[in-house]
């Protein structure tokens, strides 16, 4: 049988990874996830144009965490706690999600929202640079989640990969960067970020200690599982 060739890309500046109609259908399946706190957090993001992972990725994170019985999660970049909402649900009453954000106001908002959702007691939210806090935190993690400035992605991967327990996960958001990783001359409003994401993705897929996959929903989420020996 002849080889099937990939379709030609016309080189737009950005691409939409998943057809919006498909994402709308998937959203329609998630009615059971409705929660007043969650809706309030999403409304704030829309009002302030604040980047959050959204409900499709949130449910995906929760599912990944539950699949490996995660109890200890470290977030590089937490905003006001939207992704932590999903991880905190997954780790259970005895688990812990360590959150980081440089903005003290985000810490305050996270406390308000996650307290209302009865999840704050599972969260250790520290205001400051994520990389510094991680370096000062001891032990292994079931999941390291990366959502900091994209130019720092390769460095965060280098820090995190040896601190994940066998069978644990490294997860990072925005790894398709609105399709910029797949075009020759992307329109990048943050110089160097597309190149950093490309480097980050290649480092992970070429690491013999991890199995990796990219879920293209929203802006692309990479999941890399540390192999067990």
| Average pLDDT taken over every residue | 91
Helix count?
8
Task: Give the low-confidence spans.
Answer: 1-11
Helix content: 25-40%
Report the structural category.
alpha/beta
Radius of gyration, CA atoms, in whole angstroms: 18 Å
What is the number of strand segments?
Answer: 7
Largest β sheet strand count, sense and barrel closure:
7 strands, mixed
Strand content: 15-25%
Order of helices and strands: HHHEHEHEHEHEHEE
Identify the strand order in the major beta sheet: 3-2-1-4-5-7-6
Going by CATH, the architecture would be: 3-Layer(aba) Sandwich
Oligomer: single chain
CATH superfamily: Vaccinia Virus protein VP39
Can you tell me about this structure?
There is one protein chain. The chain is of the alpha/beta class and 229 residues long. It has one domain (36-226): Rossmann fold, CATH 3.40.50. It contains 8 helices and 7 strands. It has helices at 20-28, 36-48, 54-67, 82-91, 104-116, 130-135, 153-160, 193-205, and strands at 72-76, 96-101, 123-127, 141-146, 164-173, 210-215, 221-226. The protein has a 7-stranded mixed beta sheet, sandwiched between helices. Strand 4 (141-146), helix 7 (153-160) and strand 5 form a beta-alpha-beta unit. Helix 7 packs parallel to helix 8 (193-205). It is globular. The protein starts with 19 loop residues before the first helix and ends with a strand.
